[in-house]
Amino acid sequence: GPATGVGAYVWGGEAVGNYWGERYFLDRVLENYNGSVYLIQGMQDWNVDPHMAVPTINILKQHGIDAKGLFGQWDHDYPDRPDYHFDRSAEGRGREAYPQMTRFDWMQDLLEWFDYYLKGIGDKPGQWIEIQSNHGEWRIEDFYPPQGMETLAFDLGGELSNIGGTTTILPDASTGPVYETAPFEEGIWIAGLPRLHVDVRTTTIGGQIYALMEDCDEAGVCIQIGHAIMDLRYHEGGTEEQAWIPLLQTINAKMEFFTIDAYIAANHSIRLSLYSTGDDYMPASTSSIVMVQEGPGSTLQLDIIDAAEKLWFEPPACTHSFCLDWLNQTVDST
Hints:
Layout lengths: L1 H10 L7 H4 L3 H7 L3 E7 L13 H7 L3 E7 L9 H6 L18 H14 L9 E4 L5 E4 L8 E7 L4 E4 L3 E2 L8 E3 L7 E5 L2 E8 L5 E9 L5 E10 L19 E6 L3 E5 L4 E7 L14 E4 L1 E10 L6 E3 L7 H13 L1
Parallel strand pairs: 1-2, 2-3
Antiparallel strand pairs: 3-4, 4-18, 5-17, 6-8, 7-16, 8-15, 9-14, 10-13, 10-16, 10-17, 11-12, 11-15
């Protein structure tokens, strides 16, 4: 196990064996499983990342497996732990959704799920996904990412103006271009898996891009709403390593953000910062200078929902002392 991880970091894949392949079982689930799946996922989880549940929940449903999802803005926690939710959240990391993220009703849902599927007791549970936005609102979706969304595209250097840094990403975790949209005339609701497709050239066969997306208000105060990271040896996506001619050949890095469900208010802007790494990610083992090419080949793509068409709901309120203390503080501060 540990040796495989080190080897994958150094070589970008498995030099020997099939460690990862043996532990990928979704295809076997789809072929053989005759049961149900209730997926509980923290949208701020850095241990079991949201990409483990999204778009897996849709794949299960499309293969006829009874599946339900409860996706809240907590970290690597149970949905009913308000003290953990508070301690492990921060600005731009789930705090804006507290205490609405705490779901004391989830155990009752789980009991009804087990009663029906294991004992044949009660009515069949609903097969929907309960998803919470980064500001705390809950709604129902049949699929997640939702179906039939509108896509907004912003090209780097165009609708996304360069407001700082050059177009060169250095392997120092702090040097790279920063882009920002114009303020939105009306609010937008981002849902699912945003994409960043960016044309680049590198000085070697390697390199890495970390993309940070933020919501910035009129005063220029920003909070994180999501991130993406890519080893450029896999710039086409998938598990097959690619090669190119450094300095001479342009490649298009097809990056996908970890799941985002975020509301961007009117008069706010989206900021996109590109670096070689960020958060607790390691620098690339194949560090390289990366040169971004602005224009129509480099776009940020956001899928948005029409909030008026959605079913919103308020779960039972959290009355734990942590929740009440935080609510009292926020009321006093306003």
